[in-house]
Every structure is written in structure tokens, then in C-alpha cells.
Specification:
elongated; 67 residues; mainly alpha
């Protein structure tokens, strides 16, 4: 990773970032979240997680009704 210039694993979705951050210790999680918010205008994928879960539950429910 050092020779390629990558310091973080490549992540193509916010959920992979969430999983990677949760695997770290508590203090490191807070630090990563802070700097992520600084670099992304105060937003973080963790903010939308409850909405995504609600959407997925609704979609699953709606798919069952259609069939």
C-alpha cells in the first residue's frame, strides 16, 4: 500500500467505509469520523444508515405484496 500511494483500502460504497471504521477502536472511530466530516462538508455515511435500513425494510415488504 505504501508503494502504491494508498493509505486506506479502496472503498467503492459508503457501507464498506462504515464496516472498515467500525472495525477500528473507539477513539480511532471518532477521529476517522471527525476528519471524514471535515473533508465532506459535515456529512458522513453513518448519518443516512437508519434511512437506508428503513428503505430496505419497506422495499422488502413491498416486494412481498407484489408477488
Amino acid at each position: 500500500m505504501i508503494l502504491q500511494g494508498n493509505t486506506l483500502p479502496e472503498m467503492d460504497t459508503g457501507f464498506q467505509l462504515i464496516k472498515w471504521v467500525r472495525d477500528l477502536g473507539g477513539a480511532k472511530q471518532d477521529e476517522m469520523e471527525h476528519w471524514y466530516r471535515v473533508l465532506n462538508d459535515g456529512s458522513c455515511p453513518l448519518d443516512t444508515l437508519p434511512f437506508v435500513q428503513e428503505y430496505n425494510e419497506y422495499k422488502h415488504w413491498a416486494d412481498q405484496i407484489e408477488h
